[in-house]
């Protein structure tokens, strides 16, 4: 029976900001109030600190085969980095390989995560290869708590489903109460443009940007919305990056269609100019869809404020520079993905709240509460309330964070935000009442995370 009081912090939730004490017993929030005097094993003074629900990152790729390699963070290093960055729950993508069964894919991801993850975790399933019985298997997967599917409109030779297959998966999602997450890019057009660029000798990392003009995202978003209406099923867009996509979602929401979407830390903070860096450095920013420009960033921030976009995820899909060099002679072979599980909360706090783009409530919502709600984990996760898990992140608003690959916990040997200095510092993190990060350092046990069987929607 552990009893802890978090004293006098300023509690930020998705709907309010107030000063109070929190009494935690056996990992659950039992009381919130003024000057709590219960008997406790520990009383932690948090006066002057921001106390928020632990971050919920619903888009990660740990220990995941991608192209010709595998992401460099596994469930141990990736979740330690997440914890140090204030994230206490992740939902990782279990990606079906060709000729692999869906149930088997989820089992494989359980093996990857068990005894390694240090924070609580769930899975989505990426459906890339339909087979006889695959719809029945999706039902079994949902019963096991994997209540969301991802489909690709991209990578025609490996991961893409055609429109008819997308329709079938959407119908299954509607039937089982599972959310279908869409990677919206027109893969067929992208492949043709990329082929032309390589033919013209344009083989460097900037080819990744040039082969993926904004319209390839916007067209796919509109097509997916149309198909979801035919299937009468809700839809969630992952990693949206453009002004056009944000507008398409705003329009769909105006019609009250059940469409939702996320963007990612990198689309809100980084510019496409990175692809033109010399010495193959641009490869470090090869992630999909590519980084965009200022107009897009402004539209994404606006989308978060107005509700057309509701979540910011990391899309943590990490590779070292050496792995990126697989594509040194042809950008099409550069493994696609960026590394940012550790800095999502920090950057959204600084570039969102401190910079005046988001209110404290909007910030908590997009990094914690909305993702927990969207993916069947609320109010166990994503909330500071009586009965919720005591997953709590503490920010020192007077602290400063300097981002560097030298000091981060991720295994990547570079950072897309190298040298950035930002207001605020994540100082303590609690997971189910246990302090797992103190002074920015992971202090919890190895492999202490638990699998989250998520609810249907
Ligand atoms: N899609 C993702 O969700 N992550 C990395 C690359 C990709 O294509
Ligand atoms: Zn994707
Ligand atoms: Zn991803």
Short characterization:
The chain has 457 residues and is of the alpha/beta class. The protein has helices at residues 75-84, 102-113, 134-143, 163-176, 187-199, 206-210, 214-231, 243-254, 265-269, 294-306, 321-324, 344-354, 360-374; strands spanning 3-12, 17-25, 28-33, 42-45, 50-53, 55-60, 65-66, 69-70, 87-95, 120-126, 148-152, 179-183, 235-237, 259-264, 311-313, 392-402, 421-431, 434-438, 441-442. Helices cover 31% and strands 24% of the residues.
Q: Your description of this structure?
A:
By secondary structure, this protein is α/β, with parallel strands linked by helices. It folds into two domains: 3-52 and 390-442, Urease, subunit C, domain 1 (Roll); 54-374, TIM Barrel (Alpha-Beta Barrel), CATH 3.20.20. 31% of the residues lie in helices and 24% in strands. The chain contains 13 helices and 19 strands. It has helices at residues 75-84, 102-113, 134-143, 163-176, 187-199, 206-210, 214-231, 243-254, 265-269, 294-306, 321-324, 344-354, 360-374, and strands spanning 3-12, 17-25, 28-33, 42-45, 50-53, 55-60, 65-66, 69-70, 87-95, 120-126, 148-152, 179-183, 235-237, 259-264, 311-313, 392-402, 421-431, 434-438, 441-442. Strand 17 (421-431) and strand 18 (434-438) form a beta hairpin. Helix 3 (134-143) packs parallel to helix 4 and helix 7 runs parallel beside helix 8. The radius of gyration is 21 Å and the shape is globular. The two termini are 34 Å apart. The mean pLDDT is 98. The site of dihydropyrimidine-2,4(1H,3H)-dione has 9 residues, from loops.
